[in-house]
């Protein structure tokens, strides 16, 4: 019996998988949960997905710069008391953004604004500038036992 779908290269399969995951990520349960807060929460999906295996560095840097510009805009908006910059550390790790510019903007934030930066491998300069640093360490993960990503847990 011949396969009903065409056979593709590993690179084509990886690209298609990443595109599907990026699409699915935009429909996360996190977004659904935050929607319950109505206009009290503003959510902006700005990233390009899995940038550590980039095929287009210029596009990824441009996306990071657009996301950072939006972040600066949100930090300046007095209606926000908390801004979460999810995975900013990844953009800084790969030098998609200028660390000195990010640190300068964060140091100029208005009084009363809380900023949370997430992502692995925070730059030492960001850690030094932060008011609070928390590190999560993997002890055990069900993925290692072959359990696939689960709705409500990983997405």
Describe this structure in words.
Helix content is 41%, strand content 5%. The chain has 155 residues and is mainly alpha-helical. It has a single domain, classed as Rossmann fold. A two-stranded parallel sheet has the order 1-2.
Q: Average pLDDT value? A: 85
- What is the CATH topology assignment? Rossmann fold
**Class computed from helices, strands and strand pairing:** mainly alpha
SSE string, helix = H, strand = E? HHHEHHEH
Oligomer: single chain
What is the strand tally? 2
Helix content: 40-55%
Strand content: 5-15%
Described by strand count, sense and barrel closure, the largest sheet is: 2 strands, parallel
Keywords for this entry:
single chain; mainly alpha; Rossmann fold; 6 helices; 41% helix; globular
Short structural description:
It is built from six helices and two strands.
Present the secondary structure layout.
Elements: H1 10-25, H2 29-35, H3 57-76, E1 82-85, H4 88-93, H5 99-107, E2 114-117, H6 124-129
Parallel strand pairs: 1-2
